Amino acid sequence: MWLSDTQKFGVGMTAFGLALIGLGVVLFFDAGLIAIGNILFLAGMSMIIGIQKTVFFFTRRDKLRGSIAFFAGFVLVLVKWPIVGILIEAFGFLNLFGDFFPVAINFLRGLPIIGRVFSLPGVRQLVDRFGGYPPQYPV
């Protein structure tokens, strides 16, 4: 599956937005960087999957709690409450994209170096917990 030029640009905007959010958190919760990162993340996401599908994703009934939390956190960052805003955004982000984590973990397990790290004894249990796998008990 090949990406169109618009989708490639959207991937770049999403990645740059996530990088700015991370940089804003590292730089003592700089509200300006976090706000710009949020805008780029949302714009990039809408360029990747389209505006109509983005609106549908955020307004789905099962994703409504995550959407409200994500956008409430976004508003709090805009009104210069970045610490509370980013915490509420993180809660919303986990509710919105939590179903994607097992897919991402399985993909990362197939990579050469990261897959070996995920197979280490302590890391394996932690990754399995976040990946949604049930605990395996010795028989």
Give a written overview of the molecule.
- Helix content is 78%, strand content 0%.
- The chain has helices at 5-26, 31-49, 51-59, 64-78, 82-97, 101-109, 112-118, 121-131.
- It has 8 helices and no strands.
- With 139 residues, the chain is mainly α.
- The protein is globular, with a radius of gyration of 17 Å.
- α1 packs antiparallel against α2 (31-49), α2 crosses α3 and α4 (64-78) runs antiparallel to α5.
- The model has no long low-confidence stretch (mean pLDDT 91).
- The longest helix is centred in the N-terminal third of the chain and has 22 residues, at 5-26.
Sequence-ordered SSE layout with sheet pairings:
Blueprint lengths: L4 H22 L4 H19 L1 H9 L4 H15 L3 H16 L3 H9 L2 H7 L2 H11 L8
Helix pairs in contact: 1-2, 2-3, 4-5
Key traits:
139 residues, 0% strand, mainly alpha, 8 helices, single chain
The biggest sheet, with number of strands, parallel, antiparallel or mixed sense and barrel status, is: none
Instruction: Let me know the average pLDDT.
Output: 91
Using the CA coordinates, give the radius of gyration. 17 Å
Shape: globular
| Unreliable sequence segments | none
Number of helices: 8
Fraction of residues in helices? over 70%
Q: What percentage of the residues does DSSP assign to strands (E)?
A: under 5%
Structural class: mainly alpha
The succession of helices and strands, N to C, reads: HHHHHHHH
State the total count of DSSP E strands. 0
Distance between the termini: 43 Å
Short description:
By secondary structure, the chain is an all-alpha fold.
